[in-house]
Automatic annotation (TrEMBL):
Membrane-spanning intervals of the chain: none
InterPro entries, sorted: Cytidylate_Kinase-2 (IPR052922), P-loop_NTPase (IPR027417)
Matches recorded under Pfam families: AAA_18
Organism in which the protein naturally occurs: Paenibacillus pabuli
Protein name, UniProt field: Adenylate kinase family enzyme
């Protein structure tokens, strides 16, 4: 868990977390949100209009962009997701960009665990768990390492001064503590 003293010293108010599916973005965002008292936004919930017990509907690019801009224009936020091209404004406005560079084996375990607990109804998810979706998650995870990661790093090049690449929350804690010394 993020140490309270380190957060008080640095106190970034706008944090963008990016990484592959299963990397731990949502969990990290929730922990940081609670610790720093910052609202957090899942990009998947900006892309999709969630329909209870039904098929989610993809928001139009205009609606999606308006929802993102509303979050980015606020004074404090944590934004997390795998998307990068259409979220350039959040990278520009962020005080800190965290890239979760989680090993593929750990992502695979997390993807299977999420599928299992949500399929069994032990945890509520944002989408219906199916074997097709499970397969897509694994495909996206492997594709991320082979292609997307390099594209994201190139896209983030102008923001290197505020980019922190970590494998987990403990590494982020150390980074934040060291940056305040």
């Amino acid at each position: 868990m993020i140490g309270e003293q380190s957060m008080i010293k640095l106190r970034p108010n706008k944090i963008h977390i990016i990484g592959s599916v299963g990397s731990g973005k949502s969990t990290l965002a929730r922990h940081l949100s609670a610790r720093l008292d910052l609202p957090y936004y899942e990009l998947d919930n900006i892309v999709w209009h969630r329909v209870p017990q039904g098929q989610d509907i993809r928001n139009s690019p205009e609606t999606r962009d308006t929802l993102l801009q509303k979050a980015v224009d606020s004074n404090q936020w944590i934004i997390e997701g795998v998307h990068y091209k259409w979220v350039a404004s959040s990278f520009e406005q962020a005080d800190l960009i965290v890239y979760l560079n989680t090993p593929v084996w750990k992502r695979n375990v997390r993807i299977l665990k999420r599928f299992t607990v949500q399929k069994l109804g032990l945890e509520q998810g944002n989408y219906r768990q199916t074997f097709t979706m499970l397969w897509k998650m694994y495909t996206w995870s492997y594709h991320h390492d082979r292609k997307e990661k390099a594209l994201i790093m190139a896209f983030l090049q102008p923001h290197q001064h505020k980019l922190c690449m970590v494998r987990n929350e403990a590494e982020l804690t150390r980074y934040l503590e060291e940056s305040t010394r």
